[in-house]
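User: Can you predict the 3D structure for this chain?
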Amino acid sequence: MNYYIAMSQKQDIFTLMGGRVQINRGRYNPTSDAVWLAAFADAPARTVLDVGVGTGGVALCMMAHRPSIQMTGIDISRDMLDECGRNAALNRRDIELIETDILTWKTDRTFDLVVTNPPYFKGTPAHHNAHHNVDLTAWTRACVKRVRPMGTFCTIVDAAVADEIICALRGRCGDITVFPLFGGRRVAERALIRAKLGARGGMGLYSGASMNFEPVLRDGLTIDAALATLLSKC
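Assistant: Here is the predicted structure, written as structure tokens:
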């Protein structure tokens, strides 16, 4: 099973988490990164902000895990937000959508949990008008400003830039947890990173999992639930 969603399929709607989330095929189709981030960000929270919500993959997967959360999504692209609204309606979910840039957003609002799959891509911007070539340090710090005291920040990034995120968190967050995701060559391709604003604990490093890990991608479990299931079988 390929850990990326099969984009060559022609159906108008495809699914994530074993069918628990439906997505209209559009200009940007979420990959397994969205499923992994939602599975890792399953911290107790009432209010959640998805920075760079795109077409809603992360937000909708999170709401599949915790239907009662109050979800807010921001994005600089009106086209993305319109598609996210349609995907939210398809899944019968309510998401507050705001057209703004996290780097310039003028607000005093804070949230129990802030999640982001940041635009760490380099090169020519895509047609869907998403951020590219972004300063990950500035992006991370802007996200952390929207976390309430002792709230949680959570992200997924290419493993090659994980150090930028961790360095940006230092002095602001503690209890940093890193969960690597491995590809076919047993080399980490993605890093899930979670931290608590104002906490003093150090960093913990999981042994990680394969990016094809079916309990998360196929069965739609959170990472904690999937690991608990594995331990119960030992």
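The helical segments are 32-40, 57-65, 78-90, 136-144, 162-169, 214-217, 223-232. The two ends are 25 Å apart (CA to CA).
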